[in-house]
Design goal:
The chain is mostly beta strands. It has a single domain, classed as OB fold (Dihydrolipoamide Acetyltransferase, E2P) (Beta Barrel), CATH 2.40.50. It contains no helices and 8 strands.
Length: 79
């Protein structure tokens, strides 16, 4: 079986990190929230684009992230 390449979940805007809803080793489902960002007084959930296991969490609560900043890295399942 072939493994899918790691998926880097990135911010799509400049924002503050309000929460990180996963940890290294967690399995997340497609569409599951992995972080919550705040920008311009709006809360924006960041969702996993596919299922996988969290291999890295690159941010902490209180961090300010830029557009394109990697938040979480997922290792995909075997295909």
């Amino acid at each position: 079986m072939r493994r899918t390449p790691p998926l880097e979940i990135a911010s799509e805007l400049v924002a503050n990190v309000l929460s990180v809803d996963c940890a290294v080793g967690d399995h997340v489902a497609e569409g599951q929230a992995v972080a919550l960002l705040e920008s311009m007084k709006m809360e924006i959930p960041v969702l996993a684009e596919r299922a996988g296991t969290v291999t890295a969490v690159k941010v902490s609560v209180g961090d300010v992230v830029q557009d394109g900043s990697v938040l979480v890295v997922l290792d995909g399942p075997a295909s």
